[in-house]
Amino acid sequence: MIPRGVRYALSGISWPVYALLYTPLALVAYYSFSPAPNQTGHSLYAYGQLMHDAAVFTALRRSLILALGSAATSTALGTLLGYGLCRFRARNATGVLANIPSLIIYTPIIMPSLVFGISELIFFNFVHSATGFLGAGLQTMIIAHITFQVPYVALTVYARLAGLDPYLFDAAQDLYADGIKSFLYLIIPVVQPAIIGGFLLGITLSIDDFTISFFTAGPGSVTLPIYIYSAIARKGITPEVNAIGTLMIGTIVVLALVHFFITRHRERAGQFAARGNIA
Length: 279
Known about the structure:
single chain, mainly alpha, MetI-like fold, globular
């Protein structure tokens, strides 16, 4: 049992942290209900303006296309990369060879976004000047997002597979499962939560990214983060910007609540099934 003094100390530390985390979000929501021009009191004026702004919906559509396309591709590639690094690593490797999987996965993750974005810009400009392909636009943004999302998915899948008993693969071979069947009927079911988590993480990273998108975007490929940055640079922080932020916060809260209730329902269903089996 935790002593009462320790509980009070932890509470005294946690509540200021909660306030620091959630007060800015509350302020964004509060100022999104600013009054209309020449009026007083709170109103939905900013949301009404937002609903009639075609540029916002265009930027949102591009962000969703970018997020879903890059996340789907990076999930497939990251799953294969994580599986390959775990399945075909040398079990008796030492020194540098033993750390190669970690170097491959962690290096792009710890790379600063600014450096990554500049390097992608230089690469795409070189390819475009040499071949005429990969001009700045949505396609270059998708490729850039895939390159920085793949390590996250690979790390998630690799961590899941690293905890498996390596003799499971030998058992699958003893049951006449070749490499493809072993991957489809053993690996995929085992790493399915990691695959789903990697896909959702890829969507989150893509929608949240600004730096890499800014360096690889073209004139007609403005995403929602770039649009928000441009709006703030032109007009400052307006109620419409706060309304966009509030809608994004609300969407994340709703998704988190849905995930919470689904997870709790599954846990209760599993406990109920376990009790039925015991009885």
